[in-house]
Amino acid sequence: MFSTVKSSIGPQLIRSLSFSPMARQSTKRAEEHIAYLSKFYTPELLQSIKITESLVEPDTILKLTKQGPNALSKLGLQNTDYSKTDPKWDEPVLYPNQAVNKTPYPNIPQVQAPDRSDLKLRFSPGKGPRKDNFATSRGVSEGLSKLTGLDKRYIERLYVRPVVMKRVSCQTSKGKIPNFFALTVVGDGNGMVGLGEGKSRDGMRTALVKAHWNAVKNLAPVQRYEDRTILGDIDYKYHAVKLFLQSAPAGFGLRVNSKIFEVCQAAGIKDLRGKIYKSRNPMNVVKGFVEALTKQRGLQDLAGGRGKKLIDLRKVYYSA
């Protein structure tokens, strides 16, 4: 239909031509064209088409015809930015199962050029370094104090360390839903240690706060020999992880896996040697080690099982 419009001749051109055979042929073509357009357009639109065609020069139509189907008219809209006129562009993008005013991913810093280091970031820097202990920054300590009965200052001074942080996906019938997982260990460095998990769709920081909350709730005492090492050798199996740990003399240090090292720092264990066999999944390693520590048999139980006094057991097993 529009290919016929390109070859049309306006009324102004018809009036300017003389009544030669070529002029009569052009007039006939123009009348046929108008009759053809009347089948598809209302009289009002047909009148506007006539006015528009009368303003187009024949040379312009000839040039467009020579250029073929790839020809572009200069009468159309030029350099139109719909992002400035369409309000839909200003609406935020919402992800499946997303909380209000939250995004599942952290904000990406916007720099003026990624290949230049001398340009400053567009956002203003923070007032100070971020603290690892989320109890003071999020007001978690006050709620935990009411829940557990522990002192608020004691909770704020706890050693907090995220051990595992990862982004996971929940596969549902609606697709993959992004999620964040965190595993945190807390302790006072004096025989108390706790492990907690946290999940959130609002970001990693929310998952860390939940993990810290659960870890403080799960605080449990750990038996230590001379407040520095474990009571004896531990050969413990947790799922596919096999832990073999040995007590060490004073000043030996922590020669263990990096995840076990963080748990020892929280529990106050200063001397330990150990080896992990088979699976080294960080989550299972930490859970297995904490479970092995809490299930240790005390010196009283070991002495009672062998029919010896506590002082004899210390002398036999620890050369005390």
Automatic annotation (TrEMBL):
Pfam families hit by this protein: Ribosomal_S5, Ribosomal_S5_C
Compartments where found: Mitochondrion
Name the UniProt record assigns to this protein: Small ribosomal subunit protein uS5m
Gene Ontology cellular component annotations, sorted alphabetically: mitochondrial small ribosomal subunit
Main location: mitochondrion
Lineage: Eukaryota, Fungi, Dikarya, Ascomycota, Saccharomycotina
Domain of life: Eukaryota
Mitochondrion in keyword set: yes
Protein family membership: Belongs to the universal ribosomal protein uS5 family.
Organism: Candida tenuis (strain ATCC 10573 / BCRC 21748 / CBS 615 / JCM 9827 / NBRC 10315 / NRRL Y-1498 / VKM Y-70)
Purpose of the protein: Component of the mitochondrial ribosome (mitoribosome), a dedicated translation machinery responsible for the synthesis of mitochondrial genome-encoded proteins, including at least some of the essential transmembrane subunits of the mitochondrial respiratory chain. The mitoribosomes are attached to the mitochondrial inner membrane and translation products are cotranslationally integrated into the membrane.
